[in-house]
Amino acid sequence: MSAIAFAIPGDIDLPTGGYGYDRRLLKEWREAGIPARHLALPGAFPFPTADDVALTERILASAGPEETLLVDGLAFGAFPEALAARFGGRIVALVHHPLALETGLDAATAWRLRDSETLALRHARAVVVTSPPTKEVLSAEFGVPPDKIAVALPGTDPAPRTEPRLGAGPARLLAVGSIVPRKGYDVLLAALAQIADRGWLLTIAGSPDYAPATAAALRDAIRDAGFAERIKLAGAVDQDRLSALYASADIFVMPSLYEGYGMVLTEALARGLPIVCTRSGAAADALPDAAALKVTPGDAMALAKGLARLIDAPSERRARADAAWAGAATLPCWRDTARTVAEACLGGGPRMD
Questions:
Q1: Residues 184 and 314 in one domain
Q2: 68 forms bridges with which residues in the sheet?
Q3: 242 Cα distance to chain centroid
Q4: Based on the domain organization, do 20 and 97 belong to the same domain?
Q5: Local mean pLDDT, 10-residue blocks, the chain (353 residues)
Q6: Which residues contact 199 (CB under 8 A, 6 or more apart)?
Q7: Residue range(s) defining the domain that contains residue 212
Q8: CA atoms of 69 and 63, how far apart (whole Å)
Q9: How far is 42 from 12, CA to CA, in rounded Å?
């Protein structure tokens, strides 16, 4: 097979880390002359109707025999086994993180997704993951042979440094990510309530549309805590607005309960921001300890202490900002990411040299 048909459910232009990864692969392949195209699958995944499954089968069947079917895990993990088996010899699965590990699922739904993803992965010719921990999970819990899995860490673009602002005034905190249970914004709010006497302002940039009940509960909790003037929910933002938010921040915070990788952490590192985050993904593990204070996911007290420490000590913020800027030089580039995925799909086919 000498070309890639990249099957992705929903709107690829949505501002999420997973879609951002997918968009960037297509861009890098296009620029490198790798034959690749986008196949748009129904947006109902990972909870498709029978009609969605039938339409997905027709879309995949439309791909030419020379095309490897690279299927985003948001869809592939919810494929009925018969669908995965029909195209199994041609499918490479891209798993950002297993569907069953999404926070907030009821037990029955989580088990159903675990079962469907386990069965579907048996039929994939190869699997690409975005971090070594996800490879370990798929091998240990989903029965995927390790030699069948390629790791393609997300790349990071060079970015201008955010100059440390050490003068008077509240510390400007920034969190980035959709408002869903897994992102742990309720834990962040509980942490900030413990340090309400400190000078801080928080902006959360992320869509409220994926989990409306979670977003509504967060808005209510912000109001009830008396933080309406201190916490801004910016919603989904475009790249220019996001860049401006990074440029105006003093501290980056990520309270996630679980991440397959955590691309926003390397984006913050690339701008030289000091970081307070949970140990919830491969990006957190990869951050230099000198740049980031790392706490246990779900521990509001530890998160509060980490934030208070940097708010209270501008000199430490400066030192950690310097360490972040130095660490940014070691980040992988997107061309390397795209090369790894292309090689998993095409084997000895076209290269990105």
A1: yes
A2: 4
A3: 15
A4: yes
A5: 94 92 98 97 97 98 96 97 95 96 93 97 97 96 97 95 86 97 97 97 96 97 97 95 97 95 94 96 91 97 98 95 95 95 80 50
A6: 169, 170, 171, 311
A7: 171-330
A8: 8
A9: 11
